[in-house]
């Protein structure tokens, strides 16, 4: 094999090793993102429930205040 071909194969091997490392990093990041997406879904439901509850409480107080002012 010629020296040029040997050098090209060595370069290709280095690039493939780097690609493999980058793919492993990407896989780990995607796995972490999937876990965080589930957590965000839970937090969204939790905060939505708090928002609806506070709107109901504040809405009832607003109705009482308006009713008292009209009396």
UniProtKB/TrEMBL annotation:
The keyword Coiled coil applies. GO terms for molecular function: microtubule plus-end binding. Pfam families: DASH_Hsk3. Residues 2-36 form a coiled coil. GO terms for biological process: attachment of spindle microtubules to kinetochore. The keyword Coiled coil applies. One of its GO terms (cellular component) is DASH complex. InterPro entries: Hsk3 (IPR042332), Hsk3-like (IPR013183). Keywords: Coiled coil. This is DASH complex subunit Hsk3 like-domain-containing protein. It comes from Aspergillus taichungensis.
């Amino acid at each position: 094999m010629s020296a040029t071909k040997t050098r090209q194969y060595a370069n290709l091997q280095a690039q493939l090793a780097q690609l493999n490392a980058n793919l492993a990093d990407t896989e780990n990041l995607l796995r972490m993102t999937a876990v965080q997406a589930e957590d965000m879904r839970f937090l969204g439901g939790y905060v939505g429930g708090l928002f609806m509850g506070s709107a109901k409480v504040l809405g009832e107080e607003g109705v009482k205040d308006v009713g008292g002012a009209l009396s």
